[in-house]
């Protein structure tokens, strides 16, 4: 055992001694979705399978990347140097990037594979890594999404922060001076609340931070309301708006669809859904065209396709935020969320939030 570790560490030192450098800049990002540039130099015998791994938190094991990109996606890779631009979302902890050498001779029948049976990249030859890259405010209120309650004059908003800070929603009919204030309840869940791997293992699990739930009330029907979430401690989101429910309207505008998934700018353990970008783009256009008419979205299952890799839920909620922070976004359970039919809602508080929201009622409205 000792000999093995000695050997391993001398291999790493040797690789670093080749002087490959990897740099990321900027080291601090302002807002979720900002780009970083990764720049590498001096790879002496580049391979088209050399790759950069994306890690968050930075102390993750080498094979617990959240995703990876082949350096050969950069046109200059054969020179052993190049750069890649990459948007990062605020995952409530810093990131680190590591490059590894990998070539075709290392792929054998026993190489681990992803869900599509493509070989997963080898972490045997670490060449270089960056310092940590972080966000200015890891508590920046994120993943805003709206939902109806069973009262016509209410609107629920949910958002996420890293820490268990008190959260609020401020709202009103005028963008200047949001007069209504409601304190949010906050919740979280643990690795042991997950029913199976990979979600309950250190590979698929990520700390979800705190989920804040606040209900705006006393809303006049069919009016555009402005709102903002957060607190002086966590910082505040930008001001968003929605059109309240109008019980007297003679039309209901609803966007109903099943399936979608999420798109991430890297490869990972699962296939992700590039097409979801277009779905969001067209829905956004349609909602903008509706102007001040109230509408809602019903996503009737097969929601994120995260399938146990939690950062894909973060990617999904970030991706839908431009819609879900403007119009109520309702979901129900599809087969990709229903792999454990006998399992109760976990954690228990989720049944209160989501328990009446799924299944038959929404499917009924699709087929009605
Ligand atoms: C962050 O914001 C500051 C000013 O608010 C700006 O000067 C800086 O360029 C921004 N950084 C990034 C990475 O966007
Ligand atoms: C990130 O870079 C891409 C092009 O590489 C650009 O289209 C996009 O607008 C940038 N995103 C931000 C938030 O600056
Ligand atoms: C994950 O869930 C499975 C199925 O319930 C269980 O057998 C396993 O022990 C769990 N693993 C961890 C690390 O909790």
N/C terminus separation? 65 Å
Please summarize the sheet with the most strands. 5 strands, antiparallel
Oligomer: single chain
Low-confidence spans: pLDDT under 50, at least 5 residues?
1-17, 356-368
Outline type: elongated
Summarize the structure.
16% of the residues lie in helices and 27% in strands. The chain has 368 residues and is an alpha+beta fold.
What does this structure look like?
16% of the residues lie in helices and 27% in strands. It has helices spanning 2-17, 276-290, 311-324, 349-354, 360-367, and strands at residues 21-25, 28-29, 35-41, 51-55, 67-70, 82-87, 96-101, 125-129, 134-135, 142-147, 155-161, 168-172, 180-183, 185-187, 210-216, 224-231, 235-236, 240-243, 253-257, 295-299, 329-331. The strands form six sheets. Strands 12, 13, 16, 17 and 18 form a five-stranded antiparallel beta sheet that branches. The chain has a four-stranded antiparallel beta sheet with strand order 5-4-7-8. Strands 10-11-15-14 form a four-stranded antiparallel beta sheet. Helix 3 links the parallel strand 20 (295-299) and strand 21. The protein is elongated. The protein starts with a helix and ends with a helix. The protein binds 2-acetamido-2-deoxy-beta-D-glucopyranose (3 copies). The site of one 2-acetamido-2-deoxy-beta-D-glucopyranose (NAG) has 5 residues, from loops.
Keywords:
five-stranded antiparallel β-sheet; binds 2-acetamido-2-deoxy-beta-D-glucopyranose; disordered C terminus; disordered N terminus; 368 residues; elongated; 27% strand; 16% helix; four-stranded antiparallel β-sheet; single chain; alpha+beta; 5 helices
